[in-house]
Amino acid sequence: MTDMLEMPRVHECTVTDCGYNHDGCHAFAITIGQENGHQNANCATFIDTSAKGGLDRVIAQVGACKRSDCQHNAELECHAPSIRVGPGQDIADCQTYQPR
Question: Has residue 55 been placed in a domain?
Answer without folding.
Answer: yes
